[in-house]
Here is the input.
Amino acid sequence: MPRNAEVIRQWTILRDLEAARRLTIDDLAARTGVSTRTIRRDLEALQEAGFPLFDEVHEQKRYWTLEQKAFRRLDDTGFTLAELSALYFTRTLAECLSGTPFQQDVRHAFAKLGAALTPGMRQFLDRLPLAIQAKADPGVRAASPGAEPGSKPDPRVTQLLDATLHHRRVEMRYHSFSSNRDKAYSVEPQRLVFAQGSLYLLAFVPEYDELRTFAVDRILRLSLTEDRFEPKTLPDEAFEHSLGVHHGTPERVAIAFAPSMSRYVRDRIWHPSQSIDEHADGGLVLSMTVSIDWALRSWILGFGALAKVLAPAELAAQMRDEAERTRARYVSPTG
Here is the structure.
């Protein structure tokens, strides 16, 4: 079993106990699709980790309960003024979540945090975003027509979270951007990922025996089935070999940058696999082991003539052809 499946299941148990107040081991087993023996091990593990779980007998049934103020010890430790102010201020960094199903929860969380501050402190801290702001990634999807701030989460996301946590297969109709057509899929949801301003579903597609990525916004309709599946082992980081939201076999890529771009390229982490070779003329070569996809090609094109692909040869040829097509669009029809 993947090592994250156990953690997800135990988190589900905590959320279920928090929502239902009390549940039997049989209830939890039915909700998570595992044996009662596994549930007992999960409860023991959670108790050992320090979560305030306890059992009690009610009407001759043994129930499990989560202490509703599970983290009240935070009140005893107390935040310093600087820590509390820093946490409150970071709400501006969370503005990039606007339009996602997490927006409402983030707003409520910071409202509770703000309640611990005096009105004068809040007024002062509310001015700080004028000095520092967070900017959403380019290309973030616009809100749906008629959508209002603070509206209820997208029901598709709620269903997909349920399917992911409880390992339930999903039947869905999806609009493919690449083929520009609708298609029916039966999938096994593995993970939801928020990346580049949008939500994506990583799901195993039995029909193709492979893991695929689906943009949640392009799911036209979906329904959860009662069929269960065994989750796949996924890497800790989604899209680990891509500069975007793609999957693919990684290859070693080498890109030469002009001296004027060297400091900009050198001072940033573009991918964990990167290495840099400095040149005497002030230029450099950036090497990375990444998948060759649209995200990589568009990133390289963004540097224009200041970047040149050295390897692999196939990618260099693709970039040369793309540059030629771009040039052709600017040529006057009359010559």
